[in-house]
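Researcher: Structure for this, please.
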Amino acid sequence: MKKTLITLLLTTATLGVRAQVKTMAEVFRAMPDSVFPTLSTTNRLDLIDFMEAGMKSEVTNLLEGTTTLTALTSDSLSLQMSGSLRVDMKLLPAAEPSDSITQTIRVARTYIIKENQSERVVDTYTSDWHLLSSQVEHDSLLKCYDEVFSKP
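Model: Predicted structure, token format:
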């Protein structure tokens, strides 16, 4: 009887911890419109529904352009927002088990300037979409500026 009770309590506790962990689809559905103002809530829901139904996951965004959900897994997704913007999102577990934040979301926006020039903005959010940090990475864009400004 004691073993059954202990097993039941451990199973319940495990399910409670598991309930706090969200999938990428759940996080993307709950994302506020302010993160991607050109992609409405309806657009996001449609993208997920189309992908889950095995259809081409493509919608017309608020700028009358095409946004495509190219990949969706339980912990990541990729969006082609336009011809010059790609977004990759990844769910990461908490840094430490005792951390009050159960997951963080890493959102990488890659802006393609020219064929070999891009700029990447990486934002980190809590699973409730509170911004933790933001970082800009200049891949070959700085090289382009250096070439332009170093000319006499």
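Researcher: Any notable elements?
Model: Residues 14-19 have pLDDT under 50 and may be disordered. The chain has four helices and seven strands.
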